[in-house]
Amino acid sequence: MEFNEIKSIYSDAQLTDLPLENTNFISFPFKNKWIHFEKSTKTSSEIELLNLLFVSKKTNLSSVALKWQNYLINGVEPSPPTLDSEFRIIQFIILKKDSYFEKKTWLSAFKSIFSNSKEAFFTNETSGLLIQKKSDEKLTFAELSGIIQTLDDDFSIKTICYIGQFWPINKEFKSIFEEEQFIFEKQKNKGKSLLSLPIVALHHYTSESLDKSILMPILKKKYTTQPELKELILAMWHSQGNISLAAKSLYVHRNTLQYRIERFCDTSGLSLRNMDDLLLCYLLVF
């Protein structure tokens, strides 16, 4: 069914690239976009019908997984399946999937990475969620990245994940997830395969102000148009100003890197050894 056909039946239907941060709407994944309906104008029977229409039967969701999906995504379940402990939501999207991709096998392998994972399911053909209960056992971010990369190699795909924070199941839980979902939609095409709030917070929460700025684009054009300067700034940022670590990541001698930093300072007046200057330069290149 095409959107215009749905629109002819439900005139309030909306189609967007990103989820809506509005609890007054019922939302469903729809052809790599999101379709929304006003909740207040729908009867319980209409909501049930929409749920049957947009929740794919091919996913063979368990009853608990379906409750999680109806609670988090579809807006037709008023409460979560459990009120026990703290949970986090891991969002994923799969790229470069070929016709031989075994979705069920991959999902089982992906779920096994996370200790105490309760449910994992696809919300559309390429995206889905994993529900993880908090436990003492946890992998470091680097270890997790390596395991997912190995899994990608085994299945000849590319996975992009957003690792949510652990939150108690309360009235804010769904709203928090919706913000995490919105962040993931905005940040998933930035080049990183594994995302979390600490990684994307600076990008996400400053992007609107940067878009409205007049002076930042001028500074960017003036100081950071050369590819090697971007590489230099990112190396210093990721090493948090440690010249030895930055030189190692760039495969150059420490003295060579110091010379480049001094030359950039001479032309721009910005010292990459100073964390305030380094932050400004980082904002110019991301």
From TrEMBL:
Pfam families: HTH_30 (PF13556). This is PucR C-terminal helix-turn-helix domain-containing protein. Residues 235-283 form the PucR C-terminal helix-turn-helix domain. Gene3D superfamilies: PucR C-terminal helix-turn-helix domain.
